[in-house]
Specification:
single chain, nine-stranded parallel barrel, TIM Barrel, alpha/beta, 36% helix, two-stranded antiparallel sheet
């Protein structure tokens, strides 16, 4: 099985990738003239706007609202409260989110599904306009989902490059300013060298196309939690994946100042019996970021798959964030635990600006949606409470007092798709 030996046998840079058929034999120095080609990293005419957008999304005290679930997944949420999966009901659910008063205090960007980008609220106002009025940058999910990767160990690849340029241009015209493309790497299934390269190349092409059309790409090679592997194996795979990603980003002339990253936290597999301590998770994750992420990148949104109550406590040991150029956001999949962990990271200065992004933590909000005005108001209040808690945690001011039992439940789902 092409698996555990991957990283030991497959170097990051294979000379065959850049020698391009030339002989590897040393030639006599007297007869050789070395010509160093000029390198041009470009982001079309949108360069300044891309940098500004990336910095805005990674702004202090705010984070991302990821409401890009597909219509099918949104339908499952609606079914849980006895509602049909119709466009009108999806519209009502999404209206509930974007019209929450004061949401822009805590949310800097919202990732939308394509239907939502072109949708209006139940009151007839474009959802994009509602977001912009709250100083929230609209984003868009641009991938077309995961499909089986032929020739691999039952692994997947992310489709959606065909027609991406024209779609991205249209998304920009509609008001989107950043993009999301999610591909995954499975440790139990290898990962095979083919799957890692496919993930990295797809992300790089997506990023280049997005920048060419004015969209800041969120680069997200998600290393799935599924598996019994230990933290060392996760770290090994993560190093390989991110090295490949940045190699191909550079090959595709992607401007690093105009991207955002979403690396997974380095943890053991969800089914591993040996759980890591918060200090171990912090140490491994910081080592990964320092070894693989260039300082030009303005925003890192580290995905927190949280099983430990005080994850990453040791991230608070570093110098003033004013001295550093990177900004970090944390994907929050478990509300109460995540607030505490994020808060711990911000109790003292550290190398990165640590913020947050809601993802599946929104799942339970649909259950509060209801049909009456009172139930809808309660759902909005729940959204704002969670967003504010994350904002306070980012500022190092969060306390867990008064948290509900619902907020303390884990969000990991084996084999999750959306």
């Amino acid at each position: 099985m092409a698996s555990a030996s991957l990283l030991k046998s497959s170097p990051v840079l294979d000379k065959s990738e850049f020698v391009k058929g030339q002989s590897l034999l040393r030639q006599p120095s007297a007869s050789v003239r070395c010509t160093i080609p000029s390198l041009t990293v470009r982001a079309s005419s949108y360069a300044d706007e891309l940098v500004k957008t990336a910095k805005t999304v990674a702004s202090k005290g705010r984070g991302i609202l990821a409401m890009d679930e597909s219509n099918a997944t949104c339908g499952k949420r609606l079914a849980s409260i006895g509602l049909e999966n119709t466009e009108a009901n999806r519209q009502a659910y999404r209206t509930l989110l974007v019209t929450a008063p004061g949401l822009g205090q805590y949310i800097s960007g919202a990732i939308l599904f394509e239907e939502t980008l072109y949708q209006s609220t139940v009151d007839g106002k474009k959802m994009v306009d509602v977001l912009v009025e709250q100083n929230i940058v609209p984003g868009i999910k641009v991938d077309k989902g995961l499909v089986p990767l032929a020739g691999s160990n039952d692994e997947s690849w992310c489709q959606g490059l065909d027609g991406l340029a024209s779609r991205s241009a249209a998304y920009y015209q509609q008001g989107a300013r950043f993009a999301k493309w999610r591909t995954v790497v499975s440790i139990p299934n290898g990962p095979s060298a083919l799957a890692v390269k496919e993930a990295a190349w797809g992300l790089a092409r997506y990023a280049a196309i997005s920048q060419d059309n004015g969209l800041v790409p969120i680069v997200e090679p998600e290393i799935l939690l599924d598996g019994e592997h230990g933290i060392d194996r996760t770290f090994e795979v993560a190093q390989k994946v991110w090295a490949e990603v940045f190699f191909y980003l550079a090959e595709n002339n992607v401007m690093f100042e105009g991207i955002l990253l979403k690396p997974s936290m380095v943890t053991p597999g969800a089914e591993c019996k040996d759980r890591a301590t918060p200090e171990q998770v912090a140490d491994y994750t910081l080592k990964l970021l320092r070894r693989r992420i260039p300082p030009a990148v303005p925003g890192i949104m580290a995905m927190l798959h949280l099983d430990d109550i005080e994850l990453c406590l040791s991230l608070v040991k570093y110098e003033s964030w004013d001295h550093f150029r990177k900004r970090v956001s944390c994907l929050v999949d478990n509300p109460s635990r995540s607030y505490s962990n994020l808060n711990a990271m911000n109790q003292a200065p550290n190398p990165w600006h640590v913020s947050f992004s809601y993802a599946r933590a929104l799942v339970t909000l649909s259950q509060d949606m209801g049909r009456s005005p009172g139930e809808r108001a309660a759902a909005r209040e729940a959204l704002l409470i969670r967003a504010k808690a994350n904002s306070l945690a980012q500022l190092g001011k969060y306390t867990a007092e008064g948290e509900s039992e619902e907020a303390k439940k884990g969000m990991f789902v084996k084999g999750y798709s959306y």
